[in-house]
Specification:
Strand content of chain B: under 5%
Shape of chain A: elongated
Radius of gyration of chain B: 19 Å
Number of helices of chain B: 9
Oligomer: heterodimer
Order of helices and strands of chain A: HEEEHEEEHHHEHEHEEHEHEEHEH
Distance between the termini of chain A: 31 Å
Number of strands of chain B: 0
Order of helices and strands of chain B: HHHHHHHHH
Strand content of chain A: 25-35%
Helix content of chain A: 25-40%
């Protein structure tokens, strides 16, 4: 499947293409963000609180105006204020705003009026699979059920772009797993046209579903690459620093991710590995160990 | 837009019906308090229509959605801001007419029963101006609730209303000739038609301002309750 999707990625137009996006709030600027969501891919959007993930998502979906830049959806440039294109976009917001006074069935019926491609049978199937009582009032649903309902409302019309902002925060591991499985199944059902952007702090979730990773730091996109490349593009070098030597001077060109009791770990690009090892050996570092970093370690180094 | 109108009407049916019942009962209560003097009924109608209804309607339609952030949910739907704002304006008008008809009918019934209908019959010219005035006041209240938090939103249009009342009183007391000419002109039907057309233009302007405001605001952020 991965090979098929790679072929699709090379041939098809990007589902969403963000170019040179700038957005300024008092005390915060989203700077020159370029992000391409290819068909058949799930992109994990990472970053610390306040890094600009939600702002980027809202700008990309035309929910707030941006200062400059351009956004293309399936190759067509979007004009701010136009809303019809959102018939092909599913969005699960971080705050999951829903009409508490409505019953589940009533809410889905209300939402369905805006989507010509609404698939009622698929919607009821998802409701049954997620175990949501369609006659229940939304105010009586638990947090997990609300998230699932928001996801159903975003999936039931088979959007070509699915944007999920912190969808799994506050969910227990069972519901999270169900949620991610459904997400994966949904994109696999039509990889030629479909893409997912998922923002999350739960790195295990991103590792489990994402094909690509985008890391945003202080409003700047610092990493955007396939997950496999992000992980294999770096190595962790662990070593014991020689006594009396300042580790930072020793390896000031690399990011130190841990340094305790004489033992130091630093993040080094894979293609500079030999150079780094020889530098360390030259200054007397010993017990040098090399291993592949986890996404968490890369996140901690860059976020 | 029909789905939005239906949603709003369904959401507020119960409070609207309750409010209409209270509005209908209001002239009767005032007549009892005022020992059966018929003018009380009409006074109560004006009071209810002008002072309370616009606040109630806009609070239901906008403040609840702002505080629960469901305006953000509407914003994410594939429907233009024109439709969302237009639906709110239409629902506000429907509610206002429902309350107005209930209130006026109840007042006229009171007058009829007390035998003062002929002497206190409402002037159609005044009714026409009051109606469009209240519609405009409600629409500006919508803009106020969309722009400001509740505390300021309630007060802002009343500032305008106060200025209008002051201007009216000043004209009446200090420029009686001008006031008389003004009133004579206001009674002409062509002037009333022109007034309604101007009001429609003002409502259109308010609509465009609200659309721009709706599009430019991040409704996912918490607002003051």
């Amino acid at each position: 499947m991965r090979l098929d999707r790679d072929r699709v990625n090379e041939q098809a137009t990007a589902v969403l293409e963000i170019q040179h996006l700038y957005k300024t709030y008092p005390g915060f600027t989203l700077k020159d963000v370029n992000l391409v969501l290819k068909p058949g891919t799930i992109t994990g959007l990472l970053g610390r609180n306040g890094a600009g993930k939600t702002t980027l998502i809202k700008c990309a979906l035309g929910l707030i105006p941006f200062d400059s830049g351009s956004i293309k959806f399936h190759g067509a440039e979007l004009k701010y204020g136009s809303a019809a294109w959102r018939q092909s976009v599913g969005y699960v917001a971080e705050s999951h705003p829903l009409y508490d006074w409505m019953r589940v069935e009533q809410f889905l019926k209300f939402i369905s009026a805006y989507y010509p491609t609404w698939d009622g049978r698929y919607c009821w199937m998802l409701l049954d699979r997620f175990g949501i009582d369609r006659h229940k009032r939304i105010r009586d649903l638990s947090h997990g059920m609300r998230v699932k309902l928001a996801l159903i409302a975003a999936l039931a019309y088979h959007p070509t772009l699915l944007v999920l902002d912190e969808p799994t925060s506050g969910l227990d591991p069972v519901i999270r797993t169900e949620f991610l499985e459904e997400l994966r199944a949904e994109i696999m059902s039509n990889p030629e046209r479909r893409a997912v952007l998922i923002s999350s702090h739960i790195l295990e979730d991103i590792t489990a579903v994402a094909d690509e990773v985008a890391l945003i730091r202080n409003g700047e996109l610092v990493i955007h690459a396939p997950l496999a490349d992000v992980v294999t593009g770096w190595r962790i070098l662990s070593f014991n620093a020689p006594p009396g030597r300042d580790v930072r001077q020793l390896v000031n060109r690399y990011k130190i991710i841990r340094g305790r009791d004489g033992s130091v770990s630093l993040l080094c690009p894979t293609d500079e590995l030999q150079f780094a090892v020889s530098e360390l050996e030259a200054v007397g570092a010993n017990n040098i160990e090399i291993r592949t970093p986890s996404l968490r370690e890369i996140f901690l180094a860059f976020a | 837009m029909r789905a939005l109108v239906r949603k709003d009407l369904r959401e507020h049916t119960l409070p609207l019906l309750y409010y209409m019942a209270v509005t209908a009962a209001f002239p009767w209560v005032l007549v009892v308090i005022d020992r059966g003097r018929p003018s009380s009924a009409l006074l109560s109608t004006s009071f209810v229509m002008v002072v309370i209804s616009p606040i109630m309607i806009t609070h239901w339609l906008l403040n609840t959605e702002k505080t629960k952030r469901t305006l953000f949910l509407l914003r994410t739907l594939p429907v233009s801001a024109h439709h969302i704002v237009g639906a709110k304006q239409v629902v506000a008008l429907i509610m206002l007419i429902s309350i107005g008809v209930t209130s006026v009918t109840s007042s006229l019934t009171v007058l009829h029963i007390l035998g003062g209908l002929e002497a206190n019959a409402p002037n159609p010219v005044v009714m026409a101006w009051v109606f469009i005035g209240v519609v405009l006041f409600t629409q500006s209240m919508l803009l106020s609730f969309l722009r400001f938090d509740q505390r300021l939103a309630i007060q802002a249009p009343y500032g305008g209303l106060l200025l209008l009342v002051l201007a009216y009183s000043a004209l009446r007391n200090y420029r009686p000739n001008l006031f008389a000419a003004f009133m004579a002109m206001a009674g002409r039907w062509d002037v009333i038609v022109a007034g309604y057309l101007t009001a429609c233009l003002i409502i259109l302007c308010l609509h465009l301002i609200m659309v721009r405001l709706f599009e430019r605001t991040d409704w996912s952020r918490p607002t003051a309750e």
